[in-house]
Design a protein that fits this description.
Aspartate Aminotransferase, domain 1; single chain; alpha+beta; six-stranded antiparallel sheet; elongated
Length: about 120
């Protein structure tokens, strides 16, 4: 799983969260864990809902996909899911950063206006 994620997101950073390895890329990218009968992949919503048809052969819940040990990992599908999460993280991050820039610019304008009015 590590190899698959790093191939899709080489800029991602591996960390530990909730006692599991996870990768971050402009936010939470993916968690994963090994269990007795499956490997769990955890992606924040709405990724699993968006790929519901392609995930129909696997156990899923809101943020969980269970890949049974008996079957080979669907590498292409996992890459598709990771890339979709990366895209969402990038968009959210960009909006957040630009919003901060707008607020900062507005605050700077207000500050400059107040200083001008004092003169």
């Amino acid at each position: 799983m590590r190899k698959i994620i790093k191939e899709c997101a080489p800029e991602s950073v591996e960390k530990i969260g909730y006692g599991m390895p996870y990768y971050g890329y402009k936010g939470r990218l993916a968690y994963f864990s090994y269990f007795k009968n499956h490997i769990g992949l955890y992606l924040t919503p709405p990724i699993i809902e968006e790929f519901k048809k392609e995930l129909k052969d696997y156990g899923t819940s809101t943020a969980t996909i269970r890949f049974p040990h008996k079957e080979k990992l669907p590498v292409a599908l996992i890459k598709k899911l990771i890339k979709a999460r990366m895209k969402r993280n990038y968009v959210t991050f960009t909006i957040r950063v630009n919003k901060i820039r707008v607020i900062s610019a507005r605050d700077q304008d207000i500050k400059e206006r107040r200083e001008y009015e004092k003169k």
